[in-house]
Amino acid sequence: MAERTRRIVTVAGVVVVVAAGAVIWATSASSSPGYRTAVAGPASVTATLDTTGTIEPVTSATLGFPASGQVASLPVAVGQQVTAGQTLAQLDTTSLASQVASAQSTLATAQAKLAADQAGQTTSASAGRVTPALYLTASSAPSDLKSQQDAVTSAQHQVDLDLTAAAAAVAAQQKACETIVDPDAKHQAQSQDDVDACTTAIQEAQDAQHTTGADEQKLADAESALSATLAKDASTQSTEPPAPPSGENPSGESSSGKSSSGESSSGKTSSGKSLPSKSSSGESSSGKSLAGGGKASAPASAEQLAADQASIDAADAQVAVAQQNLAAATLVSPIAGTVGEIGFTQGQPASSQQHIVVFGPGANQVTTAVSDLQAGRIRPGQQATVTPDGSGKPITGQVTSIGLLASTTSSGSPSYPVTISLPSGGELFPGATASVSIITSTANAAVTVPTSAVHLIGGNASVTTLSGGQTQTKRVTVGVVGASVTEIKSGLSAGDQVVLADLSQPLPTGNTTGARGLVGGAGGGGQRRG
Fold first, then answer.
1. pLDDT tens, residue by residue, 204-240
2. Per the database record, which ranges form the Multidrug resistance protein MdtA-like C-terminal permuted SH3 domain (predicted)?
């Protein structure tokens, strides 16, 4: 009886263990106890930009186009009632769309130039290795060369950001100190507040310039390190014995008729000028050295890489400006109210000095600011959720405008003002702070994975899959990035298992380094169906 009891207890224990194991497997959705995984599948993804703003009363709104153009549409009239977010006027966007396409083309050209110069340096550094030229890319460079290339481009990008911030700080200083330097300019008396504002602006401009100088020194150091590596590679190649070109006889003369003086018998014209087929040094007009066995011309310098990155940054800024101008070609009412004045006519040119005025007492709006990197994601008409501090009830609003003139934050970075209209009604306190969540993009994606499963290495995104107990890293193309799930456009199929965590590894700490994971839409949200 005791033996039978022990068997029953043993069987029951096995059942409990198996049941517990099943629960653990279902929780982790993994076929291996060493990994926590999830299954890729369809979901609705929402990317948001989360920030804070200030509630302000709106009594009137004066709207105008930032740039001149022909008015293509004017669907409102004086005295007409309009709603928040309603289109008031629109310019002809043909030329503006062309400017966006041209700016994007310039950016693509600049990016291709940088990639080609990086690949050229890689090819030069790899000349002594048996690697088909077809497979020589910037990513196949030696680790020290690749890291030094990245250091140069990263340092140049930071300097470009510093220069933009410094220019904005200087402009802010000039504006703040205008009445101090020239008190009669606006016929205003100087006050202590004016003096304090000017002093603060001067200090911020000096700090921005100091930061720029420090980062420029980092750029110079990065260029020096890369130049030293390129020079070392060139020196190593010059000391290696060249391989005799095909067709050259043992005496060193080419079977194609090269003379003992090193020049082709047909290498000179009757006028004494060299033919483009061969120079006296044995190099062709295309820069190929015969003695070097077809070695390419000198690779791009470190300074050239920095110049390439500067061109990319400038072109990127032009794309942002062109896109903002295109978005600003549509005037949208920030409030519900009555059209009180229209300063231009449909079919006629409109200047930046002409406006539409909408009166709407009782309405409210929220003003906030976004960085220069976030500004390109914001467009008039986007839906936003506003939650006043102390209130648990969100209010649905709409982005009505984004400013084209940047202001400088306390950290020296440029920021752009954004206005969000709110519906009339409700008790809102002017000056109160509110949480703002702007929906920047949505997608009903066929394949999504948890955002934490996506890793960024440089500009490439990847996930780790688990199949048959084996893991594999796959490069993927991401679409809309939400807080919880991310859209995968290519590289993964629905039903694939992706690794969220390796349970055998220690938990990450503040000092852990490695590949970066995605951050969901700058604090954005994502909702998974099913």
1. 999 999 999 999 999 999 999 989 888 888 887 666 5
2. 446-501
Whole-number average pLDDT of the chain:
77
What sign does the CA torsion over 48, 52, 55, 60 have? Answer: negative
Q: Which CATH superfamily is domain 48-90+332-441 in?
A: Efflux pump adaptor protein, beta barrel domain (2.40.30.170)
Token pair, residue 20, equals 């517990």
pTM for this model (two decimals): 0.46
Query: Six-digit token pair at 481?
Result: 């990035």
Neighbours of 47 (CB within 10 A): 25
- Which residues sit opposite 45 in a β-bridge? 443, 526
> Taking 80 as the threshold, does the pLDDT of residue 105 lie above it?
yes
pLDDT at 267 over 90: no
Letter string b/e over residues 280-289, b meaning 16 or more CB atoms within 10 A of that residue's CB? eebbeeeeeb
Residue 23's CB is within 10 A of a number of other CB atoms, namely 10
Calculate what percentage of the chain has a pLDDT beyond 70: 71
Which of the following CATH numbers is that of domain 29-45+442-527: 2.40.420.20, 2.30.40.10, 2.130.10.10, 3.40.50.720? Answer: 2.40.420.20
Of 507, 481, 479, residue with least CA distance to 492: 479
- Among 73, 55, 126, smallest CA distance to 384 is for 55
